[in-house]
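Chapter summary example.
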Amino acid sequence: MSQAPLHQQSVRELTTALRQRDVSATEVAQHFLDRSKAHPELAAYLALDEAATLAQAQAADQRLAAGTAGALEGLPLAHKDIFVTKDFASTAASKMLQGYRSPFDATVVRKLADAGVVTLGKVSCDEFAMGSGNENTAVAPVGAAAAAPVRNPWDASRVPGGSSGGSAAAVAAGLAPAATGTDTGGSIRQPAAFCGITGIKPTYGRVSRYGMIAFASSLDQAGPMARSAEDCALLLSAMAGPDPERDSTSLNTPAEDFSLQLNESIDGLRIGVPAEFFGEGIDADVRTAIDAALKEYEKLGAKLVPVALPRTELSIPVYYIIAPAEASSNLSRFDGVKFGHRAKDYADLQEMYVNTRTEGFGDEVKRRIMVGAYVLSHGYYDAYYLKALKIRRIIANDFQNAFKDCDVIAGPVAPSVAWAIGEKANDPVANYLADIFTLPASLAGLPGMSLPVGLGAGGMPVGLQLIGNYLQESKLLNVAHRFQQATDFHLQRPAGF
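The structure predicted for these 497 residues follows.
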């Protein structure tokens, strides 16, 4: 068994120790529960239930003793509060769903449970996954009386990234060995970069969206967040696979073991470097860390190849037309009738709808609903929404042209390191611009991931983004893993954690 404390061990180390009975699932779960309760200042968790978690851990111990253990038996994991769960409230960090209990588990939750995972609790996110800093949350974290933004473990005055900021902060601080996240426009990759961990957004449709509270249905995709590419490979192997009976957008692609190709040589690998990712707007400290990472890849035998993604700058207006349009449709179900928040004061049905949605949704959610309703309205559908769909196709074609000359594409995850909490709170456009490098892959439905490659201004982590062609998750994880075998950035931890 590794001599490192449990919260400093990898998913591989923990599952090996559990299988060898060096430690019990109950002991591991209790360790992480204690750490999570000991660090309320990060505001990472929205829900903990010690009894429910320990009951799952005890059941895992029984399976381990009986020799019927799953691949991840006894591993504790935190779920982003965008996945519905039977044992924990599912709120999407919104007042609209505060206290809501789902009668079923999301497919991702069920598949991980089938593999033996123990749920630690639900972690914070931007409301309905809408945000880049995890400041748009309306539900009070564990141990607090009022809603509060998640804080970055590397510097508590800074954001952890969004919308999966709770997931990233929990993993970075050792409050969970791994967590689930969702990525609509970069919400796995950007918080992973800001918190110095690894995260992967699979090809759209690789992982079932059933039970994932919808934001933008043609963009939302679930993925794992953990310390390393190896950890992400083990988790994604349990999460991925078709779900035709519940999710019509899931791909009919069999589940696979994403860890099988981790150690393959990358000698001769062609890494595409798009000029559009290295122009004006990228901070010097981020550029320095990314350039150093690319040089490390050259030492490992890879070749850097210039490629073009000429519509990169169009990804922001395209995304912020398509995503709000889909959000305005998806969020129309929250009207106070069947479930969720309902206003107390109203005179008629129309007023109940208006008051409920006014009280239940936060400012950013309202902003996106209004933008979405506008671009879908008569007279503007063709001018905005339909045109955005056409440009989305062109962006996807740009990637296919680039992949003719390279195997993977590399660049920064974000133009800067994590910013101060409140710095961009009153400037939504500044938040949107922070997603410029992650949006193109989301619009194209391509797999992308972030891995830590150094520290920038203020000692804050910098993430390298790797983008692959469709269904090339194994290749991405291999490329990331070989880098992590040669460097130790993924092993660095924030002080005090």
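To summarize the output: The chain has a mean pLDDT of 96.
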